[in-house]
Specification:
69 residues, mainly alpha
Length: 69
């Protein structure tokens, strides 16, 4: 019984360290995924803003005005 308790003192910190490493790995992976998603979202918004700007320029130049031939 004493041998088993002695082994538990050694195994317990190692087990906690392994669990902590796995948890840190998941956190880093999640953070990278969220950062990638945020970057893609910002790129879409930027592209949408560029598209709106191009449309406004077209309208201001008379391309969208009806009756101008």
């Amino acid at each position: 019984m004493e041998d088993m308790l002695g082994a538990m003192w050694l195994v317990s910190p190692l087990g906690l360290a392994m669990i902590a490493c796995v948890a840190i790995g998941f956190a880093v992976t999640a953070r990278e995924a969220l950062g990638r998603e945020r970057g893609l979202r910002e790129a879409r918004e930027h592209a949408h803003d560029d598209e709106e700007g191009a449309t406004r320029q077209g309208w201001s130049r008379g391309k969208g005005v009806s009756g101008s031939f």
